[in-house]
Design a protein that fits this description.
20% strand; four-stranded parallel β-sheet; alpha/beta; single chain; four-stranded mixed β-sheet; 173 residues; 6 helices; 8 strands; globular
Length: 173
């Protein structure tokens, strides 16, 4: 392969101050181990959907199968449509990727541990964030993981192998 496989990484994990509170969550593991092997493309669905930084925090609320992204302090703040519009528009870029590493527990990027709250504020289930739901629905074979799994050497190596195999399959088609 002439070039390194491309992976998208949640921008906050690269240390960029894009989280709701204007901070980042730099992951040395990602920036050290994965950046050596892959071309990294930053993505922040919330900022790229136009929500700005800092911004009011949101959480997933309602039907666990089709939750809404609503404000934590002000439930009338509904950013669901903006996040879904961005997610749908980003799918074309995903065609050029061989993997994705996302921020855990995020209402947009969480992979499996994002809480979904009921209307009373109690956690009723956990699942994927809105961006991740769209991405994995359209690209079910694309290797996707989060920074929690990537921190574990065995899981990180498994992800790296999946990305390399996916990249080889894309180039061979």
């Amino acid at each position: 392969m002439a070039s390194r496989p491309r992976i998208a990484v949640s921008s906050c994990l690269l240390g960029n101050p894009v989280r709701y509170d204007g901070t980042g969550r730099f992951s040395e593991t990602i920036c050290t181990h994965l950046a050596r092997q892959f071309e990294i493309v930053a993505v922040c669905p919330e900022v790229e959907a136009g929500l700005g930084t800092p911004r009011p925090p949101v959480r997933l609320t309602g039907n666990p199968r089709h939750p809404l992204a609503l404000g934590v302090e002000d439930a009338s703040l509904d950013v669901t449509a903006a996040l879904l519009r961005f997610s749908d528009s980003w799918l074309a870029q995903a065609k050029t990727l061989s993997g994705v590493v996302l921020k855990s527990r995020s209402p947009s990027c969480g992979l499996r541990d994002t809480p979904v709250f009921d209307r009373h504020g109690a956690v009723q289930s956990s699942g994927a964030g809105l961006f991740t739901r769209v991405l994995t629905r359209h690209y079910p074979q694309l290797p996707v993981d989060d920074e929690v799994s990537i921190a574990d050497a065995k899981r990180r190596n498994a992800f790296i192998n999946r990305v390399e195999q996916y990249a080889l399959g894309r180039c061979g088609s």
